[in-house]
Amino acid sequence: MPDVIVIGAGVVGAACAYYAARAGLDVTVLDRGPVAGGTTGAGEGNVLVSDKEPGPELELALLSNRLWRELAAHGGFEFEAKGGLVVAETGEVRERLVELAAAQGVEHAVVGGPELRDYEPHLADGLAGGVFYPQDAQVQPMLAAAHLIRHGRESFGRSALELRTGVTVTGFLRDGDRLSGVRTDAGDILAGAVVNAAGTWGGEIAAMAGVHLPVLPRRGFILVTEPLRRPLIRHKVYTAAYVTNVASDSAGLETSAVVEGTPAGPVLIGASRERVGFDRTPSIPVLGRLAAQATALFPVLREVRVIRTYCGFRPYCPDHLPVIGEDPRLPGLYHACGHEGAGIGLAPATGHLLAQRLGGERTDLDLKPFRPDRFPEGETA
Amino acid sequence: MTCYDLAVIGGGPAGVAGALTAAQAGLRVALLDGGARLGGQYFRHPPASLQASDPGAFHHGLDRFLRQGAALADRADLLLGHQVWTVERVASGAAEAAPFRVHALRDDRPVVVAARRLLVATGAHDRPLPFPGWDLPGVLTAGGAQALLKGNLVVAGRRVVVSGTGPFLLPVAAGLASAGARVLGVYEANGGLGLARHPLLALGKAGEAAGYGLALARRRVPYRTRQAVVAAHGGDELTHVTVAELDRDWHVRATRTVECDTLAVGYGFTPQLELLTQLGCDTAHDLDGSPVVTVDAAQRTSVPGVWAAGEPTGVGGAVLAEVEGRIAGLAIARSRGGNAPAPSPGAGVGGAGLGRGAGVLVRRRARLRGFARALLEAYPVRDGWRSWLADDTLVCRCEEVPLSAVREARELGATDARSVKLLSRAGMGWCQGRMCGYAVACLAGEQPQQPRRPIAQPITLGALQKSAPPDFPDPSALKHDERISDDKSR
Amino acid sequence: MKVGARPFEITVDGRPVPVLPGQTLGAALHAAGIRSWRTTRFGGRPRGLFCGIGVCFDCLITVNGRAEQRACLVEAAPGDEVTTS
User: Fold this and answer.
1) Of the candidates A34, A223, A288, which has its C-beta nearest B414's C-beta?
2) Is A10 left (phi over 0), alpha (psi -120 to 50) or beta?
């Protein structure tokens, strides 16, 4: 019988499993599909500090950024310490960016309009400048999740970290008022603790356990271009709206430009946010807008072809903060989900902190802002 | 934007028959095809500029097809050179509104066609199997060798080997041989008696097969069954192949070398479904596991207003495609009163619902579909092909992903084709899995899944941004302070 | 079969190659014995025609400075300049 069951083999579940195994616990990861079969499989791979508001999420992001660099030493998931350039179209926007950077207290460089081309030679004319964040980085999300699990197995023992794909959780088992395991379509599994790392489906899993967790989907599209023969874009490049859209509550369409190259050659272009449930129907207007934003930043991209587009569903909570930690409403139940477009970046810190809680230790960061029972009963996102 | 009663996508036998039938019934029709001429694959023919003495030499019925095309050109708008990259269903309230927008590219410039109804007749493409050396120049698909010959009057090589499975190998080899290539052998991986198990159906086609067989015999082209090319060799170009004797499951029993400069391989076809799946049409698996779109007796898909005909409903050849196209055209002409929800696939329509003469078509369709099924049963792909692969054999040509990387992906926790793709890059390249999709599905242990391709043809970012509707706010026109909302509710 | 049309010329890396009117670039090159005109980005392996109908994207060619054209789909025109990579 494992000490911990982790529901979800995405990047957050993988990180929870890795750090729990490292802490000496026996972990079983369950997923109804394959590794990275959910939102992780649609992620861009952002490991950012630049877009985080000062406060708990920024603290989480800084810890996570440090942990990603430690994990990157194992290799296998294309970690690139490429840095991020937030670009301002007007002087007014640039001032606000500079204010935000000062408030964040994160390593950064203010970039004047004429200096932008030192960072990105192909940027459009007439931009007012920006802020460069050297700590922003990139990973390949699916490889990251898969390799985290493998590293865990290789480092801490195969019996310490077991992965069972194609297993669907259908219910929870109780012993008195404590959780004692899960019911699955492959039989019952007992465990001392269960971690809900089911991402956009975290609310459904919580409901199965009888607790309210308002996690809802926020759809995003990504455009993927042809593989470029020679790289055009050196860093992650975003417009200031990316930072503000993340925080937005708008139910309608929010878009901002995010453009970067990849080691394999294609350029990735985002980002859109919509609350349309789990609708996968491609939206031509949204794709058109993403294209327009990208070419406004990099006119050279006008002749570059898009060969693929896909969408993913970011899991978000009403206050745009994730849920991390034990659920006081049900002893034995823990949550690690609701990271809304920042899951990849925040995964290692989430896993590390959760492992500390599983071991009954004090956590390196205060988990109060992330507690699962902070939402008024009946509140929906 | 002109609004058509019907937009037909695909100018092969199904599309032309459907468009012509509907146009003759008085509908306003547009037909879009990415090629410079009508024909699709089967009726691919040389351009008039070549001044070929006998353009119909390579296929039956080209003259008749070209006459249909000319009749169609008189009655409908032919949009050739238009590559359709997506089809949109837009919400519409008004009775006259056109619910479908067909987005195409002509010389990389966006063109949009609005229509009340759609007929998707996008045909199929070769379904190759990977094997060592298949990425060498000089290795072509059987369809590729045919396209060179039929469309360009180019013989694919001087010393040619044809290999694979299925009746398509015969016309490919016969065409090459008649055009002067030295065809060193036709190697059919399955046993050759399949058709004989269906004597009634074989009656219809045995004549045609016999014709090809005679052409090959006359030129002393060996036709061998239970043999196949299992490896291709050469430095920068093909120089020789390994031909193997196979057991029933396609495992290798003995091998020999054949020197050649060209190899044409054919292992069946994959229907092109992406426009249909974009629209949300239901699909099913054909006998060989290929995803196909489900249609009812009137060729209606599960999406109101969308019909499909030809290979997308199940690979069955040009004659069946034309019959299905005509049935669809009749049904579309009769549907003018509005798009009634589609009855469940299989719901009987008989001939009565489609007017006089339709009964003949419906019976012909049934017979031809029966024959197509028999062919699928007689020429399956058998699992043993996987034993031909070495660790470094490329599975994905575009991203150069070897078998070892696919295995590694599985070991990392990829349990389906999609996660194999995400972890190995197989299927992420230019062709988006069209060439390797079948093989990756087999290696992932599942049936090939329907495509999820919102972008069916590469489109420049410049053209894509022009595809957003004109009244959609242009981000660069937004005032900057409008874009930074103060709505930070934390 | 007889062909009445007279060939014209295109150049491939400066060398003349005959083309019959209406043929695609891919067909003309293949007929002239030029079986590959690009190399793959990881392995540097040569590629030319494979599927011949525009779905495999192996035959991508640079003609008159425009890159990534499918050679099997593009009709050749007199004076076209192809550069291999």
Assistant:
1) A34
2) beta
- To the nearest whole Å, the CA of A317 is away from the closest chain C CA by 42
User: In the structure encoding, which two tokens stand for residue B368, read together?
Assistant: 């031809």
Query: Residue written as tokens 């490292």?
Result: A22
Rounded Cα gap, residues B135 and C38, in angstroms = 13
**In the predicted model, is pLDDT for residue C60 greater than 50?**
yes
Contact A205, A30 (CB under 8 A): no
Element holding B75 (H helix, E strand): helix B62-75
The answer for A 24-53 residues in CB contact with B (under 8 A) is 33-37, 41, 53
Residue A310 CB contacts under 8 Å (≥ 6 apart), including other chains: A42, A221, A222, A224, B452, B454
Which band of pLDDT confidence, cut at 50, 70 and 90, is reported for residue A241? confident
Query: What is d(CA B34, CA B53) in angstroms, rounded to the nearest whole number?
Result: 26
By Cβ distance, the residue of B280, B413, B429 closest to A149 is B413
pLDDT category, A89, cuts 50, 70, 90?
confident
DSSP, residue by residue, A15-68: HHHHHHHHTT--EEEEESSSTT-SGGGG---EE-STTPPTTHHHHHHHHHHHHH
The CATH code of the domain at A83-134+216-316 is: 3.30.9.10
Strands A267-273 and A216-225 turn out to be: antiparallel
Judge whether residue B201 has pLDDT over 60. no
Q: C1-52 pLDDT, tens per residue?
A: 888 899 999 999 999 999 999 999 999 999 999 999 999 999 999 999 999 9
The pLDDT of A267-275, averaged and rounded, is: 95
Q: Which of C2, C19, C30 to mutate to test the interface with B (most CBs of B within 10 A)?
A: C30
Q: Which residue of C has its CA nearest to B128?
A: C51
| ipTM reported for the complex, 2 dp | 0.97
Residue B91 or residue B102, greater confidence: B102
User: Whose structure tokens read 């449930």?
Assistant: A277
* Integer Cα distance of B272 and B442 in angstroms: 19
The full DSSP string for A153-167 is: HHHH-TTTEEEEES-
A226: chain C residues, CB-CB within 8 Å: 68
Q: How confident is residue B475, by pLDDT bands cut at 50, 70 and 90?
A: very low
Compute the distance between CA of residue A359 and CA of residue A25 in angstroms, rounded to an integer: 8
Average pLDDT value for residue range B397-407: 98
| Spatial contact of A44 and A222, defined as CB atoms under 8 Å apart | yes
Q: Rounded CA gap, B139 and B199, in Å?
A: 35
The beta strand positions in chain A, using DSSP E, are 4-7, 27-31, 46-47, 84-88, 109-112, 129-133, 137-138, 161-165, 169-175, 178-184, 187-190, 193-196, 216-225, 236-239, 254-261, 267-273, 305-316, 323-326, 333-337
Residue A300 is classified by DSSP as G
Q: Which CATH class is domain C8-83?
A: alpha beta
Residue of C nearest to B152 (CA): C23
In this structure, how many other beta carbons lie within 10 angstroms of the beta carbon of residue B46? Answer: 24
Class at the top of the CATH hierarchy for domain A4-71+141-214+319-374 = alpha beta
Are B169 and B176 a contacting pair, CB within 8 Å? Answer: no
**Following CA atoms A98, A101, A105, A109 in sequence, which dihedral angle do they give, to the nearest 10 degrees?**
-70
pLDDT of B349 strictly over 70: no
Structural contact between residues A145 and A267, judged by C-beta atoms closer than 8 angstroms: no
Strands C46-47, C38-39: pairing is: antiparallel
Q: Where are the domains of chain A?
A: 4-71+141-214+319-374, 83-134+216-316
Residues of chain A found within 8 Å of residue B485, distances taken between Cβ atoms: 244, 248, 250
Q: Closest to C1 (Cβ–Cβ): which among B52, B399, B430?
A: B52
Number of H helices, E strands in chain B: 13, 22
3-state secondary structure of C77: coil
**What's the whole-model pTM score?**
0.93
Q: Which residue has the higher pLDDT, A110 or A77?
A: A110
